[in-house]
Amino acid sequence: MFAVHLVAFYFTKLKEDQIKKVDRYLYHMRLSDDVLLDVMTRFQAEMVKGLGRDTNPTATIKMLPTFVRSIPDGSEKGDFLALDLGGSKFRVLKVKVSENGKQNVQMESQFYPTPKEIIHGNGTDLFQYVGDCLADFMETKDIKHKKLPLGFTFSFPCKQNKLDEDIDVDVLALVNDTVGTMMTCGYDDQRCEVGVIIGTGTNACYMEEMSNIDLVEGDEGRMCINTEWGAFGDDSSLDDIRTEFDKEIDLGSINPGKQLFEKMISGLYLGELVRLIILKMTREGLLFNGKLSTALCTKSKIETKHVAAMEKYKEGLNNTKEILTELGLSPSEDDCIAVQHVCTVVSFRSANLCAAALAAILTRLRENKKLTRLRTTVGMDGTLYKTHPQYAKRLHKVVRRLAPNCDVRFLLSESGSGKGAAMVTAVAYRLLSQRKQIDEVLAYFKLTKENLIDVKNKMRAELEYGLKKETQPTATVKMLPTFVCGTPDGTEKGKFLALDLGGTNFRVLLVKIRRNRSVRMYNKIFAIPLEIMQGTGEELFDHIVQCIADFLEYMGIKGARLPLGFTFSFPCRQASIDKGALVGWTKGFKATDCEGEDVVDMLREAIKRRNEFDLDIVAVVNDTVGTMMTCGYEDPNCEIGLIADKMIAAQLLAYYFTELKDDQVKKIDKYLYAMRLSDETLLDVMARFRREMKNGLSRDFNPTASLKMLPTFVRSIPDGSEKGDFIALDLGGSYFRILRVKVSHEKKQTVQMETEIYNTPEDIMHGSGTRGFLITWTKRFRASGVEGADVVKLLNKAIKKRGDYDADIMAVVNDTVGTMMTCGFDDQRCEVGLIIGTGTNACYMEEMRHIDLVEGDEGRMCINTEWGAFGDDGLLEDIRTEFDREIDRGSLNPGKQLFEKMVSGMYMGELVRLILVKMAKEGLLFEGRITPELLTKGKFDTKHVSAIEKSKEGLHKAKEILTHLGVEPSHEDCIAVHHVCTIVSFRSANLVAATLGAILSQLRDNKGVGRLRTTVGVDGSLYKMHPQYARRLHKMVRRLVPDSDVRFLLSESGSGKGAAMVTAVAYRLAEQHRLIKETLEEFKLTNEQLLQVKKRMRLEIESGLKKKSHEHAKVKMLPTFVRSTPDGTENGDFLALDLGGTNFRVLLVKIRSGKRRMVEMHNKIYAIPIEVMQGTGEELFDHIVSCISDFLDYMGIKGARLPLGFTFSFPCKQTSLDAGILVTWTKGFKATDCEGEDVVNLLREGIKRREEFDLDVVAVVNDTVGTMMTCAYEDPNCEIGLIVGTGSNACYMEEMRNIEMVEGEQGRMCVNMEWGAFGDNGCLDDIRTIYDKAVDEYSLNAGKQRYEKMISGMYLGEIVRNILIDFTKRGFLFRGQISETLKTRGIFETKFLSQIESDRLALLQVRTILQQLGLNCTCDDSIIVKTVCGAVSRRAAQLCGAGMAAVVDKIRENRGLDHLDVTVGVDGTLYKLHPHFSRVMHQTVKDLAPKCDVTFLLSEDGSGKGAALITAVGCRLRDAEHN
Predict the structure, then answer these.
(1) Do the Cβ atoms of 824 and 830 come closer than 8 Å?
(2) Which is the most buried residue in 116, 712, 853, 1051, by most CB within 10 A?
């Protein structure tokens, strides 16, 4: 159906208030956020093109470099001249920038007129005149004797000439006014890095990174880019949002096709846009009772200042009345409201588009700076921005919505083109002066080639001195021999140990070198405590050997005697490759008895003392030599090693550990350094966890993943509509609970709980499993016969065994999921559950499309991460400490649940105890005292950690607890233990924050939002009882995921109430699913029903073909007098006239036969004013003929008498090929004296009245027949035409003997079925639903076209809307809240069905579409809406297929064939654009007409090209008959 149908529908049925009328009329000017985000993306793409050297020539946004490299920094000062040339007058300014305590600017200016003869003369005269005026200004201000810097604002594309030679000025900058705006504001606010002008014209500039600007040499710093954004869209990239009014503005402009974005948003065109809209609305009778005035028809009579006046808050309507009266109109109050709203829509669109482009610039700035949040200032200028009462507010609001990660301040510019030019000049002058001073200072560092040659010669001399025995002692470059006599040659192979000692940490490595030149390395890092670094040499080397022993055991190679290389990064004098005497310690080492000794001997002696293993120490190595040898292995030419870098981390650590004050807290910090995780480490853990989540969700990787990501089959959180009584059973320890949970709706939803606790005896816990079940037991349960069985079945079996009650087990629930659901009941944003107590776990709502382990892609499901096992695959080895490993070794499940052992409350107290024991053994605590209590496992609980960390009484508690352990702590000991507890619990909170951050990032990415807003339901004794834990966790989460706004909600009885909530939701969903399925079952047509539809269609076809029954038949089967399809011999030039709406087309179609068979078309579109549509028939056909005359002139063919085909898309009864009697007007036409008349005669009479040309009107054509003929030209088998778009119809080639309405038995004729009326006699009532009846009842033609109303695009959206309203009333959708939008008829267009059902569209995008319609929906709502759309469109396709099956079988039987091959020519938006319609329809035809092979061919312009082909065939047959 054409657009006019929609307009007619809206204008007759919706409430006719003025604002809604304008909103509908200007629907395409109301841009959604999605459209604006799309414009923003396009603008960003054009920016990138404009910045590229190769792509800039074709870019619409030219991104011109301005060579302004800095904004004012506050240090500018001096006198400057500014010249502002940009209109019929120009200004010269003297600007004084001074620092009198506070920087200020003083300006003196003078205006000079620019005579017309100068403006229109040559450039030399213009610049001569400018120079004269500048000289006059300087003389007036007595500054002609000074040489002042000058900034030149020249707002045109220009070729510069010199100014008058007798003026002594230094032209430092040529400035664009937009840049001037930015610089003016940048003077007041140094964050300003964007300039925008929205006035008569519009433009923007911003500071771009030099590395991104291909058009200018250099990569350092930034430069201001003048976007010249007015030309955005000149490449047609905005055509989808440009309206007919924009196009008319452009056609009437001085520069058509250029500056299209500017023409949509700037003040120069805003008033004219409003005038054109008002003019058209008046012509269509929507304003001023259809009465026009001369002023309203005159260009530029409404200016932007009028738009601003009409939109003023209080006096706007009064101003509107005055302005319209001045235009000679007599406006009513309703007219004033409507015109005011037109102004609002137009100016709002301008602000929105400007905001989209500006947001693109701000996003680019943020990405350039690699910030998650940008804070910046935008300098603004321009009359539209400054004088329009609402513009600035609207612009600011939309910018903040489109760029939510940017905090933007808008600053109004003061004299951007004048003061701004001076600021650019001042900055340029400052940078020039600075550059001179910097060059002077850096001149000392610039070495000439001669200097470098001199340094080279001196170094060469020092090398020689260092190599010679007699001069070596006094040489500065010592040239120490290393006894390394060769570089690798590639034949090296074997296993080697390496020891790397150079700081407070050192490494032991196993290096495997193979013949294929591959090297594999394994290493372990060991700490060297401060007391060993500064103890005796024997202690140091014993410690080193102990660590080597640990590594050899760790690698399982203790028995092998491997070669070892010793990297000893301290000054050393080597006597051979395996001998090196230490010259002196550095890097904080002070071990005694080492300096002057051979470090290799000391290492060998320590190995002997240990007497556990032996090593072959081959070499002592300097790190520089190691560098050369490593590179020499890759490149045999490498003969030099060079190190020139910052101090390595080990040196830094040594510095800190020796120089910082050694108090207790710092002592602990050093001792537990490995437990202090940096943000970088946590972000790395977060990334690893994210990868493991992906592995766990994948079918292929899940078996080996440490995170199992178990589906819970919980598909929704509570939506507030749950109610009823539920039983919850909570089994998870030495006792279990049974709860009765009552969820009720009494004004406000409430939950009441009754609970009873039962003990679980030890013999039951460890007995047989006939009373319980699990996948794997934990928490000391060992009941046999359960692991691997279904717990629900076991519980059901036990209930049945008792036989005295019954229960419907709806859900088996994990306590983490219960936590999420409990909190989800109170906060529907809750989509994450977290437990941090004795154990730890998390769950969250994942998109089904990401869960490979469960069938289906729609909606979401809660995933139980079982994150306690994170790291079981060795992924956390680098951050696990010796204490974590000791905890693990002593646990019931070594090697498992490693993450849980690092963070949960079950292990935290034991971790602290192990640390205290080790520190005490090393004499760092309790003066080395160790008691049996301290050595006893389990004596230090997590509750003790919580008590010690309390802010006020913590130290007192520490003393009490430690005294109870018998260690007699000092005050310093208490401080130290307090800090140990802090570090351990802090690490736990940090690690949980990292993994939770990964889940939040996944949720944000799933939703495709820039900023996530969500709630996390939390439970667990550690989170609830520890005094600092929750705060630390929250703080770290916000630091790691700054783009998420997270609320933490404490759960209430997650394992009990949560289980009830899961059950309640499952119960609600099951009941909803049943009722929805029951409702939509009516739309599922069985094969038998479809065969019945086919049979009834066949009966209706027969009825329409027979003379006796034709009058009462609903399927009219109208003869078209088209007796043949094209045979390929058609040739010649033909005119086609396509009339079917408010616009119509005239076409010239050139058809060529033979080898170069082709069709060439030329066309022009003409409007039909509403006064002509609703005038007399004579006026209508005179207008049509006038347009044909214009087209013939345009094509230069007025003298030729061409054959014409007339596509007349209104109900018509044909009596011959060139005669058609109009039955009734539709689509808003009401021209008098036409109904009952032959439209071809009316056209011929109009041509006669004109007396300018003559045409041979050969055929009056229906568009469905045109579709068939267009496709038949391509495929001779095509004998059927079908349109399934806004409306629906079909035609086909029927045997003449069956068409009783036309004389003759021979041959065939195309019959126009007009099948939309099928069912008007009630034959389809058994499959019509209440929704079909509602749509029919409220339609323009109730009781008619019932088949069309079940299958065509005009009505499918309305059927869906009625179903959605019913489902909402029944509480299935939108939380039972029916929005005003949903109540609006026609709001749910059929195009939304196509979009929603697209396979490429995720549910998130479906939600976006629904939100555009004002429907605030959840993910579950989106699934239901998608299901409804699918049911309605599938039925439509099946019904259409059943009708088509009747047609093809009729043709087959007509011809007495067992098998028919036939092609159907198809057109229509529903068929072409809906993702599934065509496939379902094809399959239905195949199923219902198995003896027919039906091909469907898409038509190309059936109403134009088709009309010409019908005319060509008519001419061919007429000529053949004549011959």
Answers:
(1) yes
(2) 1051
> Dihedral, CA atoms, 1426, 1427, 1432, 1435, nearest 10 degrees?
130
Q: What are phi and psi of 680, to 5 degrees?
A: -65, -45
Q: Please tell me the distance from the alpha carbon of residue 1512 to that of residue 1272, in angstroms, as a whole number.
A: 13
Quick check: helix, strand or coil at residue 1388? coil
What is the crossing angle of helices 599-610 and 537-555, to 10°?
Answer: 60
In terms of Cα–Cα distance, which of 152, 4, 165 is closest to 92? Answer: 152
Alpha carbon distance 434, 873 (integer Å): 58
Q: Transcribe 582-643 into DSSP letters.
A: E----TT---BS-TTSBHHHHHHHHHHHH-S---EEEEEE-HHHHHHHHHHHH-TT------
- Distances from the Cα of 668 to the Cα of 903, 976, 1203, angstroms: 19, 7, 100
As a whole number of angstroms, the distance between CA 905 and CA 982 comes to 14
Q: Where does 1232-1343 show beta strands of DSSP type E?
A: 1256-1261, 1278-1284, 1288-1295, 1308-1312
Residues ≥6 apart with Cβ < 8 Å to 1172: 1179, 1180, 1183, 1231
Structure tokens at 1505: 């090209």
CB 851 within 8 A of CB 697: yes
- Of the candidates 751, 721, 715, the residue with the CA atom closest to the CA atom of residue 1369: 721
What mean pLDDT is predicted for residues 1346-1371?
Answer: 90
Distances in Å between the Cα of 1518 and the Cα atoms of 624, 1124, 1133, 1159, 1302 are 100, 12, 16, 21, 18
272: tokens are 């004219």
Q: How far apart are the first and last CA of the chain?
A: 42
pLDDT at 503 over 80: no
- What are the residues facing 1295 on neighbouring strands? 1308
What does the pLDDT read at residue 161? 36
Tokens standing for residue 1014: 């969500």
pLDDT tens for 19-66 read 777 877 888 888 888 899 999 999 999 999 999 888 888 889 989 988
Task: Return the closest-CA partner of residue 1173 out of 1142, 1209, 1215, 1216.
Answer: 1142
| Vertex 1048 angle, CA 1044 and 1052, to 5° | 150
DSSP annotation of 516 reads T
Q: Specify which residues 525 forms β-bridges with.
A: 507
Bridge partner residues of 480 (DSSP)? none
CA distance 1066 to 904: 31
Question: Minimum mean pLDDT among 174-178, 922-926, 1435-1439: which range?
Answer: 174-178
**Residue 122: CB atoms within 10 Å:** 9
Backbone angles phi, psi at 1198, to 5 degrees: -70, -25
Structure confidence at residue 519 (pLDDT): 78
Nearest residue to 1318 (alpha-carbon basis) of 1120, 1452, 1091, 1117: 1117
Contact criterion met (CB below 8 Å) for 650 and 673:
no
Confidence band (pLDDT; 50, 70, 90) for 1005? very high
> How many other β-carbons are positioned within 10 Å of the β-carbon of residue 1357?
21
Tell me what the mean pLDDT of segment 369-384 comes to: 91
Q: CA 634, CA 377: separation in Å to the nearest integer?
A: 52
- Closest Cα to residue 408, out of 419, 423, 398? 398
Q: What single-letter amino acid sits at 103?
A: Q
Which residues have a Cβ under 8 Å from the Cβ of 670 and sit 6 or more positions away? Answer: 530, 656, 657
Residues that are catalytic: 1145, 1209, 1263
Q: In what helix (H) or strand (E) does residue 761 lie, and over which residues does it extend?
A: none
62-89 tens-digit pLDDT = 899 888 888 776 666 777 777 777 655 6
- Which residues, at least 6 apart from 65, have a Cβ–Cβ distance to it below 8 Å? 213, 215, 216, 223, 225, 226
- Surface-to-core class of residue 714, CB atoms within 10 Å of its CB (0-12 exposed, 13-18 middle, 19+ buried): buried
